[in-house]
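Dear colleagues,

As part of the handover before I leave the project, I'm documenting each prediction I ran so the next person doesn't have to rerun anything. This entry is a single chain, and its sequence is reproduced below.
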Amino acid sequence: MSQNHDRLKYMKTDVDLIIIGAGCAGLSLGMQLSAMGENSPKTVLIDPRKSYQNDRTWCFWSSENKTWNNIANHHWNQFLVKTSAQSVVVDCSFAPYRVISARDFYDHVLAAISSNTALEIKTDTTVIGNPKLINGKWYVHTSNGEFNAKTIVDTRPFPVDPQSGATLWQSFLGCEIESIDPIFDPCIAHLMNFCDANNDYVGFTYLLPLTPSRALIEFTVFAERPYCALQLQGHLGDSILQYTQGGSYKVNRTEIGLIPMGIPNYPKQLKMEKTYVFAGLTAGAARPATGYAFQRIQIWAKECAISLCQNQHPIGHCKDKVLLKTMDAIFLKVIRDNPKLAPDLFISLFSKVKSQQLVRFLSDQGNLFDYLSVINALPPAPFIKHLLKRHRT
């Protein structure tokens, strides 16, 4: 015990910036700082994982970002939204839907970060206790020594109450499978293939066909509470059986995720010193109504890196426009109160809004006319009912 104490006491590292958490947000910021060359602050990225695994995917619509477009494993010019009664195919050839595997993302950003000696990644390193501000410097005790810096960007998810901390929870479990027969159409992604409507949750299958014989199949739930892997396994098995029609296949890998959708009140800890900023999934990176975060993280990472390299304070994620924030909040609450209506609401949205307007809206690039088109596409009754209920309370 005393040896460990002495090790923490004497292994001290002075840097300009500490990034706590080297996942998507932390690594994206590191990559942007590395691109600044000699202007980059001396930075250490701290993460508890021992190594990076191919354990997730990130998806987005994009036509312009050459960096991520080139790294993407596959793209689709069409996507499908389907209920038991209706299906809609949306053309997105103007901004193809793209997927990046964790393996390729990590390989790219880790190589970029390692090219600049001002940055260092410390994996297998756990933060012990809370960082302390002493005489204008932050001190961070870890299992790998003590680090101190003027600035911290903390990308660790903060605890969110499963009962009241989010309007809805997005829980998903998926497998990348490879079948013996060519059973998939790699030209169209299945964004939402809804299961039977019910009053407990909104459930749908998400299918990304990568080749005629290989695809990522996920079962996703929007609900008032999180769902664990065990609760999703049966649904995922049914989805795989549906798509493979009982044929033989092997599982290449699995992924599981949990995203809070709509955090009503961010914890007070987000309002700290200007030299300590929170970022990442639970600090504004994820779009409340969709859970999409990748593009939002890339925009933030570039803006934050520029600010840091200009010797200014780090910045957090930009707040959503008031209208967008209000629309997302109302939509989530209507789904929470009426999960059985959700499949028809999504079908209305995807069938009635022009594809370019819809993709801009989903990608946070919407304008006022796009917002109005979305509002006009949805049936007014459940939203009016929600607003009247809110007014009475």
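Residues 5-10 have pLDDT under 50 and may be disordered. DSSP finds eleven helices and 19 strands in the chain.

All the best with the project,
I.
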